[in-house]
Write a structure and sequence with these properties.
Radius of gyration: 21 Å
Low-confidence stretches: 250-254
Helix content: 25-40%
Mean pLDDT: 91
Number of domains: 2
Structural class: alpha+beta
Number of helices: 5
């Protein structure tokens, strides 16, 4: 699972999965979907901060002050749905204000109700908390290097590892074409709590697998051997919560 602070919780694909007409509406009404994803993230971030201020940690009171920031929040299914539905509500609110079309008003109200339902599920199930959050990696720096890797185009991504061996979310992959050589990768500047990193390589974005057998030390680059491992694990989506915390129930705004 990604961290809330890694970036927008949902994607345009998540939005269209809930509403197949969305792209046509956005194009017709001039709605910027990426901007709406960002705005929904900001709104939910404020509400999450308020929820975290009312959290109750069973047998974990010592963690209350240290681990109740947005940086510790993991994206769970309920949180993802809340963000998706809130974004769709905002899209149709704008579309309605543009045309005063009752069909848009109906969808706005429907997604508002679904957002409230997802919010209630989050409160009921608890907010996922990561004790030592490790940020999502950025797109790695990749270059050609001497070697004998099969010539072709390769996709490369990386993920940071914290002191507990937990892996953060992978970044967007870099793409490189080699001919008569190999590739060398560096993940960029390490987060303060990173102790190492993993690398994933494949001939497409869907076939990347882990290449290193043990974590690569932070600050060290990786030169791909003359073959690529194909049986390793797939790129990480991020840390799982170490525990969940529950918040006092209140009526959501709106």
């Amino acid at each position: 699972m990604a961290l809330f602070t890694d970036g927008p919780v949902s994607t345009i694909e998540d939005l269209t999965g809930q509403d197949s007409q969305l792209l046509d509406v956005a194009r017709t009404e001039g709605v910027d979907l990426r901007r709406k994803l960002d705005l929904a993230q900001e709104e939910i971030g404020l509400e999450l901060s308020a929820l975290l201020g009312r959290t109750v940690f069973a047998e974990q009171e010592f963690r209350l002050s240290a681990e109740r920031s947005l940086a510790n929040v993991a994206v769970t299914s309920a949180l993802k749905l809340w963000h998706t539905f809130r974004t769709l509500e905002m899209v149709y609110r704008d579309a309605y204000h543009s045309q005063l079309n009752d069909r848009y008003a109906g969808k706005r109200d429907a997604f508002r109700g679904m957002a409230k339902w997802a919010y209630e599920k989050l409160v009921q199930l608890g907010i996922g908390i990561v004790s030592d959050p490790i940020a999502q990696a950025t797109t790695p720096e990749v270059e050609t290097a001497p070697g004998a890797l099969r010539s072709g185009t390769y996709y490369v991504t990386t993920a940071w590892i914290n002191g507990a061996g937990e892996e953060g979310a992978c970044g967007s992959p870099a793409v490189i074409t080699t001919a008569g050589g190999t590739l060398r990768a560096h993940p960029g500047k390490a987060p303060g709590n990173a102790t190492g990193w993993n690398i994933y390589v494949g001939d497409s974005g869907d076939t990347m697998t882990q290449q290193n057998g043990s974590p690569i030390p932070a600050g060290q680059s990786w030169t791909q051997p003359n073959t690529t491992a194909t049986s390793g694990k797939a790129p990480s989506t991020g840390q799982r919560p170490n525990y969940t915390c529950c918040a006092a129930r209140i009526i959501q705004r709106g």
